[in-house]
UniProtKB/TrEMBL annotation:
It comes from the Bacteria. This is Uncharacterized protein. InterPro entries: Thioredoxin-like_sf (IPR036249).
C-alpha cells in the first residue's frame, strides 16, 4: 500500500534526478560519450551518432504504477505530435 501512496512522487523524483545530473555535468560542457550496444527494436548507437538531435531517454519500470500512468502516455503524446520529426530507437 505504501508504494501506491508514493506513486505520484515518482515523476517528481525523476525530474529532480535529471536536474541534479545536469548540474553535475555543468552547463555548456559536452555530454560524455555513451555507447548503447543494443535497443529492444534495433541495433545500438552512440551519442556521437545522435549529436545535433534532441534525445529523450526514458527510464521506467513496467511494475511502477507512477511510471505507467505518467511516462507511457507522455511518450505516446510526443510520438503522435512529433511523428514526422522523430527517429525512434
Amino acid at each position: 500500500m505504501a508504494c501506491d501512496a508514493a506513486a505520484p512522487l515518482y515523476p517528481l523524483l525523476g525530474l529532480l534526478f535529471l536536474i541534479m545530473a545536469g548540474s553535475a555535468l555543468g552547463s555548456g560542457k559536452p555530454t560524455p560519450e555513451w555507447q548503447i550496444s543494443e535497443w529492444i527494436n534495433g541495433e545500438g548507437t552512440s551519442l556521437a551518432e545522435l549529436r545535433g538531435k534532441v534525445v529523450v531517454i526514458d527510464f521506467f519500470q513496467f511494475w511502477c504504477p507512477g511510471c505507467n500512468s505518467f511516462s507511457g502516455p507522455l511518450m505516446r503524446r510526443w510520438g503522435e505530435k512529433y511523428r514526422h520529426q522523430i527517429e525512434p530507437y
